[in-house]
Amino acid sequence: MTEIIDGNAVAQSIRDDLATAIDQLAEEGVQPSLATVLMSDDPASETYVSMKQDDCAEVGIEAIDIEIDPDADASELYDAIDDLNGDENVNGILVQMPVPDHVSDREVLRAVDPVKDVDGFHPENVGRLVAGNARYKPCTPHGVQKLIEAAGVETEGADAVVVGRSDIVGKPMANLLVQKAPGGNATTTVCHSRTKDLAAKTRQADILVAAAGVPEMIDGGMIKEGATVIDVGINRVDADTEKGYELVGDVEFDSAKEKAGAITPVPGGVGPMTRAMLLYNTVKAAGLQHGVDVDLP
Ligand code: GUN
User: What is the pLDDT of residues 176-200, one digit of tens each?
Assistant: First the structure.
């Protein structure tokens, strides 16, 4: 029987466990806080940010909602980030990506104080992750690591294949899997749009992480019997539904399920974990900034 890995359930258990750390902070008079910054009118980005805000409220993290007109000058965004960097009541800052074309995403990521960079995207935090000394693990790959662990799958010595090399998912995912650390020690291959014979690579994978952003590009024929398949894709495709679209992953679920030993669904797999790990990093940030040694799940 193929295990369907329930991301909602694993995310809920992380949120439950975070209550301990939030209580420890409360005993020191600290309420963690997260500022989300949205400079976009993309409906998906708006939805993601509002879900992140709701998540914060649910676990007792203060959420600060900053919205910037997508047509505004880039300086408006930098000024907002500067204000948040200097505000000691703000522990975490998340600038929702992508930002408009006239704003440099690279510069935005550099502008966030690395100690408040709960995305883990600042070059200092990327460097720390690569060096095996992560401060904040990026939320999606960290969530994937937790899902693999929750499924009872050992990464040590496994052949892991990551499809996709984005800065947000693919690269940090590969870095986590390759670390000499729990949840790592995998023999890790990164595949991407220029990979020759992708199927030959993915069929070697004991653990396959699909993060290319291409709807249903991985089918059952590309999967090794019994593999653990983690689908990071959340793609809107046209469909005859009320909203006019449906969400599909990077994996063709029905055929993949026939081969996989364990697989995440879309939705309800990685998505909820990304959100839970953002709460985790925000609580961690509050602990670091206030010198409270919190117990994290
Ligand atoms: N856009 C898509 N994923 C992410 C994420 O994890 N963090 C931020 N800030 N923006 C995103």
Answer: 999 999 999 999 999 999 999 999 9
The ligand 1 atom nearest the CA atom of 98: 1
**57 Cβ contact list (under 8 Å, min separation 6):** 63
Q: pLDDT digit string (tens) for 49-93?
A: 999 999 999 999 999 999 999 999 999 999 999 999 999 999 999
Residue linked to tokens 């870095």: 175
Distance of CA 74 to the CA centre of its chain: 25
Q: Is 105 a catalytic residue?
A: no
Are the C-beta atoms of residues 206 and 159 closer than 8 Å to each other?
yes
Q: At what angle do helices 270-290 and 43-59 cross, to 10 degrees?
A: 60
Cα gap 164→208, rounded to integer Å = 11
Pocket lining: 112 vs ligand 1, CB cutoff 6 Å:
no
Residue nearest to ligand 1 atom 8, measured at CA: 96
Q: Which of 40, 49, 93, 96 to mutate to test the pocket of ligand 1 (most atoms within 8 A of CB)?
A: 96
Measured in Å, residue 183 CA sits from the centre of ligand 1 at: 22
Domains of the chain: 27-131 (3.40.50.10860), 139-272 (3.40.50.720)
Q: How far is CA 117 from the centre of its chain?
A: 13
